[in-house]
Amino acid sequence: MHIIEIYKSLQGESSFAGLPCVFVRLAGCNLRCSWCDSEYTFSGGQKMSEAEILAEVQRLSPPSASGRGGLVEITGGEPMLQERELVPFMRRLVDSGYQVLLETSGERPLELVPPAVVKIVDVKCPGSGEHLGFHAENLGALSPRDELKFVLASREDYEYAREFIRSNKLESGPATIILSPAFRKDATGARSSEHCLLDPADLAEWILADNLRARLGLQIHKFIWEPQRKGV
């Protein structure tokens, strides 16, 4: 597989936020979201074999005496662009005792993702510039362990997400729904919510006013470390 970086940090997003996690970041993306904070994945990186990647994961998060591994997230870029190699690798991680998360856009088909893998699926909103490419069949591939994430840059994005959730009857499941303010991709210096394109306080008020069954999520790694720092 074509890999940008492998590192250990705290999970910064999703319902797993705050947990130690090994990140395997794959190269390449077919989308160009306006607020993207990982444009460095579009080129570069190195080819690594499945055995080399697994060895690095095991070095960073050795299995316990019982054979249980830690938390591993596969991310990008868009990792499912390397589906042929990635799907068997995710199976191997699961078989090796790891809990595996897959961070992916909603644009690629996901029916071949192993059932034990937690899918964290982005539904792109208008502010991203990529909202027309969602693969609707992916909603049928979701399980109660999966998550749908909406990254929001404006009130328009919030209303788009709310309509998507309600028109597809997603408040009753199966997946957990997360609404997250977009972060300025050029944010530097202070670790502050002022870097968010949408004020989290406004988003909280909208969720409460609409009684929307969704979780507000923040990228906590950007409040722990300097926003431009990589490898966290």
If you average the pLDDT, what whole number results?
A: 92
Q: Could you say which overall geometry the principal axes of the C-alpha atoms support?
A: globular
Poorly predicted residue ranges: none
As a whole number of angstroms, the C-alpha radius of gyration is 17 Å
Helix content: 10-25%
Largest sheet: 9 strands, mixed
Order of secondary-structure elements: EEEHEHEEEHEHEH
Number of helices: 5
Strand coverage percent: 15-25%
The count of strands amounts to 9
Distance between the termini: 21 Å
Structural class: alpha/beta
Strand order of the largest sheet: 3-1-2-4-5-6-7-8-9
Tell me briefly what this model is.
The chain has 232 residues and is of the alpha/beta class. The protein has helices at residues 50-60, 83-95, 155-167, 200-209, 221-224; strands at residues 2-10, 20-26, 46-47, 71-75, 99-105, 118-122, 147-152, 176-181, 215-216.
